[in-house]
Amino acid sequence: MRPFTFFERLSKAFHDHLFKILIVSTISGGGLIVYSEANASYSNNGVETETRKKKVVLLGTGWAGASFLKTLNNSSYEVQVISPRNYFAFTPLLPSVTCGTVEARSVVEPIRNIGRKNVEMSFLEAECVKIDPRSKKVYCRSKQGVNSNGKREYDVDYDYLVIATGAQSNTFNIPGVEENCHFLKEVEDAQRIRSTVIDSFEKASLPGLNEEERKRMLHFVVVGGGPTGVEFASELHDFVNEDLVKLYPKAKNLVQITLLEAADHILTMFDKRITEFVEEKFTRDGIDVKLGSMVVKVNDKEISAKTKGGEFSTIPYGMIVWSTGIGTRPVIKDFMKQIGQGNRRALATDEWLRVEGCDNIYALGDCATINQRKVMEDIAAIFKKADKENSGTLTMNEFQEVMSDICDRYPQVQLYLKSKGMHGNTDLLKEAQAENGSNKSVELDIEELKSALCQVDSQVKLLPATGQVAAQQGTYLAKCFDRMEVCEKNPEGPIRIRGEGRHRFRPFRYRHLGQFAPLGGEQTAAQLPGDWVSIGHSSQWLWYSVYASKQVSWRTRVLVVSDWMRRFIFGRDSSRI
After folding, report:
1. Where exactly are the transmembrane stretches of this chain (predicted)?
2. Could you tell me the CA-to-CA distances from 336 to 302, 333, 341 in Å, in that order?
3. Which of 193, 465, 214, 186 is nearest to 321 (CA)?
4. Which of 106, 197, 359, 390 makes a 20 to 30 Å CA pair with 345?
5. What is the rounded distance in angstroms from the CA atom of residue 197 to the CA atom of residue 272?
6. pTM (2 d.p.)
């Protein structure tokens, strides 16, 4: 025991003094041992200097922030995470949390558990209230009250700032929405909805109420026919008809679910076949879908809506869930005004997710949108860059070379080729020459280049505000940070159209992997790449497998699957805690 303790202390002494043996080699029969002190370097005069890590401040722990944190794998950064919540939430399952299909603890993972071991990470539970790009500071308000100095607000310095704060629910400034409606953006929202649903049934069971009042209490209104609204309506329908009516048999014929949508159809971002199927299914299930209905006012007992024909209607309700889109958070609005983007609805970034006008600030997810440059805006610079001999025309080789970089720099070119069924750049040129009545194929001038590319900008589209987009952006940016120093010396991106050299990285490209819409009754609509549409029970099992595999940890994966199994065996939990 005594010898072991001695060697243990000796090892600890070496560790405390940060000495490590780096090289042990044998030269001409003699031993050479070289020592170096960790986390230190030496200048030319032999003076020890400390290498400072670059500080990355990450605002937000949603899809973009968690994905960035999970992928970053470079120990030269010090990451400071700032967020009002100290966990990541798997938001696609929030509708399931509202009805007890999945428990709240099963869809959250502590943010401190996310990230690689070799990256130094710390967390502050606070809300960012202001961003100062000039002084490179963010100002925060603590969620834990005052600190030892009696202050709730403090500032944090950064070298790089990654904004991933997400967005908030958009009320469109409609009177009464903020005060009387439930939202479904956070885990706490889902828990409040679950409690309110149970409360509605308990209140409706009290004696002394007339039938009209009971019907009002059990009338659940969902505003918004997007994926969240449709999934919640489906979950609530199953919860009521499979579980609650067994516990509250007198309420069976009193419950009503109404879905209000301002557009002509629900799930407008899905294939038309899915939209039609869902509307028919909801009709069969007794869910009242009111299309073309725009909410104009909400009070504590009634919701007022207006149709496209100008007719007004008043609907009594017991609970409203508002799911109509997203709005910009106040801190982002203030930051946008500072940098001259005050007239936008989201932060504008370039194709590398860098905020326009800010070299060291990046924005991801719902709080930002990529401002994709158009080919026709740069067409003169593109032609000049490709015309290496300044002849005023491009040879076919020069055209092919510049098109390779154009496809890399402008994603709309590839989208246009795909939409037209073209197999390469030569097809694009042939189409332009055919439209112009020209058969020339050896060289082309700037007008012919314009003719070839004039339609590609029609494919410029804003990315949807989904967790899938945010997660891919977080992964992309983390990989860029990992290769920052390497790519400074050896750029790997496309050529700079309006400058010299190449961009450090390839621009971000979103890869759509498909989307799901759970419809209740163990049925799901799936729309996958390649125009593949599936609706029914088989898609439900695909949904189970995908959502289980997309969990950020094995802990949440096991918990979610166990909740699904519990629901199959015992039903949903209808207790209110």
Report:
1. none
2. 37, 5, 5
3. 193
4. 359
5. 32
6. 0.87
